[in-house]
Amino acid sequence: MSRTIQLALILSAPLALLVAVFVLNRTIGMAEGDRDYVVRFDLPSADAPVDLPRVDGPADASRPLVVIDAGHGGFDPGAGMEGVREKDVALAIALAIRDRLLAGGGVRLALTRETDRFISLGDRPDIARRLNADVFISVHADSAESDLARGASIYVLSEKGSSEAAERFAERENGADKVNGVALSQTSAGVGAILLDLSQRGAQAGSTELADLMLRELREAGIGMHHDRVETAALAVLKAPDIPSILLETGYINNAQDYAFLRSKQGQNTVAEAAARAIRVYFARNSGA
């Protein structure tokens, strides 16, 4: 390359830089002028309630409504072993319970989730509350430190759990607004706790009755039980006031027998059929039929 060409390139470099800066500024100015490239949308408030799910079944609102909650979901897989995850087992069984109840007719059904998505613990019973559900059932699968633990379990909210949930509910700033039509925001935390505790006690009898029926149907279906009784615990997902609520632990994923049972379609269907029978018997008893 000749010295003349080299000199020309050196002298033209500043001019090329000025042209580039001019073009860039003009491009940015045009973009800022019309702003067609900007996409704006509103993010939901952190305390905004989740959208209500679809309700399937008869259009008659007088028919009982069951809300089935498939535990975990999304980034929360729950228990798991060798590719079998609690969130998938829970969803499969929840869908199977829904399908069996819908096939029998006379009952309306809603699921807190129908896909692999995360829903907070507080939103799950809140969905049932907002839908005015008659029954709330949360489906899970368990795991334990020992692989000898096995069998299904049925839980209801304990008395201790009920009072603790009542205190948390009354004090929580972004909780549900009403209990039995009384706005908690218009009461003291102590009065709100009493109102919630009373309505939970009113639903406790229904929870216990449904849990006993579920235990009986699971046992008669040949499903092994972890304990031969209904268990109690202070489970946050069961704190919906005025709604009989139970948690169904379908078995222990880290136990070889339960693992094989829960991952199979036959096992999932067996649990779903027993659960659907228990729900129908519960409604038959409480309707006077």
Give an overview in words.
The strands form three sheets. The protein has a six-stranded mixed β-sheet, sandwiched between helices. A two-stranded antiparallel sheet has the order 2-3. A two-stranded antiparallel ribbon has the order 7-8. 38% of the residues are buried. With 289 residues, it is an alpha/beta fold. Helices cover 47% and strands 15% of the residues. Strand 2 (80-81) and strand 3 form a beta hairpin.
Radius of gyration: 28 Å
Mean pLDDT figure = 78
Output the number of helix runs: 7
How widely separated are the two ends?
102 Å
CATH superfamily: Zn-dependent exopeptidases
- In the CATH scheme, the class would be Alpha Beta
Enumerate the strands of the largest sheet in spatial order, edge to edge or round the barrel. Answer: 4-1-5-10-6-9
- The parts where pLDDT drops under 50 for at least 5 residues are 161-188
Please name the CATH topology: Aminopeptidase
Measured by DSSP, the beta-strand proportion falls in: 5-15%
Shape: globular
* Biggest sheet record: 6 strands, mixed
Q: Any guess at the CATH architecture?
A: 3-Layer(aba) Sandwich
Structural class: alpha/beta
Count of structural domains: 1
Number of strands: 10
Instruction: Classify the helix fraction into a percent range.
Output: 40-55%
